[in-house]
Amino acid sequence: MNHTSGVPTSTVPEPGAVPGPARLDVHLTEADADRDLRADALHGLTATPKELPPKWFYDARGSELFELITALPEYYPTRTERALLEESVDAIAKASGADTIVELGSGSSAKTRLLLDAFARAGTLRRYVPQDVSEAALEGAIAALGTEYPDVELRGVVGDFTRDLDRLPRGGRRMIAFLGGTIGNLVPAARREFLQHVHTVLEPGEQLLLGTGLVIDEQVMVAAYDDAQGVTAEFNRNVLTVLNRELGADFDPAAFAHVALWDAENEWIEMRLRAERAMTVRVAELDLTVEFAAGEELSTEISAKFRPAGVRQMLAEVGFELSEFWSDPDSRFGLSLATAL
């Protein structure tokens, strides 16, 4: 859910819910999300080849399915990153020295507790700024974190990380954390644009902590996106359910097969939905009729994987210097601490 609107507003939690200083700035409304869904669906379903952005996976059911995916034996990224964070957080806090942690796409802020604790142990933590598209998720996170970290200033920002970073609060010494390998969901041009956007909102000397999945054995990578239980397949097809509900479409999700493959040239996993038969789909809210040929594929997500040298180059091209790099023993995931020049 995307886009920014209007002047930031501030919501105040119920008395007693957040004992410390807290604020929630809202730059994104349901009307913005509805407009963006319409635009993305119209563009993607009339494109050649057809495509939909992965952000529309994450309605309530999609979020539940993703949580199930993270616990699957095949899905190594989440647990690998968490273990790496557990091993590296104190070194990250020491190398950074930031007093403000900004987390993009924070959700429930679960992994960031590791960072908050480490920066608190280092004695520098003053403020935490979670950013997410979900106002409800941020309200819940701020309420919980306010109890756990009563001396930390909390400033939630409801917005789109690809466009709204100029709305982030300034001041102090900030470190922006972008974890989960989410950078890999962006195609190269959008990836560069995003990193440039991050660089423009940081002052020289401020930092970016970037999580990246690394290139490993192809079979291991593909299995992470095509599990034996079929949870990822259900997650992939859920985007069609979202279009049915929100835009009055009449997709038959069961008529689409889940496809996950490794694109060796671009070094990314691509998820697609393949039409099992020829069909005509009507999207009532867009007054749109969409034809699918038998075997035609709809692209729904890429998940790029990286090499350490490529991460360094990608950051350098937009004005960051790679200060530190941490990886797990199997070199499946990387954490890069980069400083804005």
Give your account of this protein's structure.
By secondary structure, the protein is α/β, with parallel strands linked by helices. The protein has a domain of about 190 residues: Vaccinia Virus protein VP39 (Rossmann fold, 3-Layer(aba) Sandwich), CATH 3.40.50.150. The chain has 9 helices and 14 strands. The strands form 3 sheets. It has a 9-stranded mixed sheet, sandwiched between helices. Strand 13 and strand 14 form a beta hairpin. The N terminus is likely disordered.
Largest sheet: 9 strands, mixed
- Examine the coordinates and then state which fold CATH places here, giving the name of the CATH topology of the domain at 21-32 and 73-217 and 306-340: Rossmann fold
CATH architect. name of the domain at 21-32 and 73-217 and 306-340: 3-Layer(aba) Sandwich
Instruction: Please give the count of helices.
Output: 9
The top level CATH class name of the domain at 21-32 and 73-217 and 306-340: Alpha Beta
SSE run = EEHHHEHEHEEHEHHEEEEEHEE
Q: How much β-strand is present in the residues?
A: 25-35%
> Separation of termini?
31 Å
The CATH homologous superfamily name of the domain at 21-32 and 73-217 and 306-340 equals: Vaccinia Virus protein VP39
Integer average pLDDT: 92
Number of strands: 14
- Radius of gyration (CA) equals 20 Å
Q: Give the overall silhouette.
A: globular
> What topology, given as strand order, has the largest sheet?
1-2-5-4-3-6-7-14-13
Low-confidence stretches: 1-20
Secondary structure class reads alpha/beta
What is the percent of helical residues? 25-40%
